[in-house]
Amino acid sequence: MGFKENLKDELRFQDVTVKELAYKTEINKRTIDNYLRENESQPTVENAVKIAQALGVTVEYLVNGQNSAPAAKDASQGQPPSMDLRICKKYYALLQKLNSLPDGIREPLCKMIEELQ
User: Fold this and answer.
1) N or C end of the chain: which has fewer CB within 10 A?
2) Quick one: how far is CA 71 from the chain centroid?
3) Buried b or exposed e, range 73-93, using 16+ CB within 10 angstroms
């Protein structure tokens, strides 16, 4: 996936509208709309940085869907290894659904998942 798809996914994931992103970045809404269209207009480096900062992601993630920090560096700092943000988002959505279930359903499901390990 490229910039257009990753930007669309991130806007959807964060529930941010193009209008809100335009306001946060001070980039014209039409310009952002052009980045999201089929003709795939590419942002300038300056605009890519503004968009990434406003969304709290890296420019590299917007370009290729991956974090820039290598796993070894994360482990040496006592942090869990970096994961592909797309995977994290997928499981985050599942966790939200799981969390919304009544306790009587959620608890047995959690126990069943733990037993799979």
Assistant:
1) C
2) 18
3) eeeeeeeeebeebeeeeeeee
